[in-house]
User: What shape does this take?
Amino acid sequence: MLRADSGFAREALMAWCEANAVDYVFGLARNARLEARIADALSEARTMSQANEGQPARVFRDFEWSTKESWSRRRRVIGKA
Assistant: This one.
């Protein structure tokens, strides 16, 4: 199992892990496309937080994702709002 931040979420390393049966979890840098993809979850988390007197709320969504150019294929992403 390999766990790393967004600096390591690169095609070469992900492809190597997949080819060598190494499970991996990489953070992804926040960007407008990802935020748009989880907009409903962000709204849900905001509503939950307001309903609980400002206490933190987290909502997760998983989906298939690909970059516009740098990834060779779609991969599973779990977004946290």
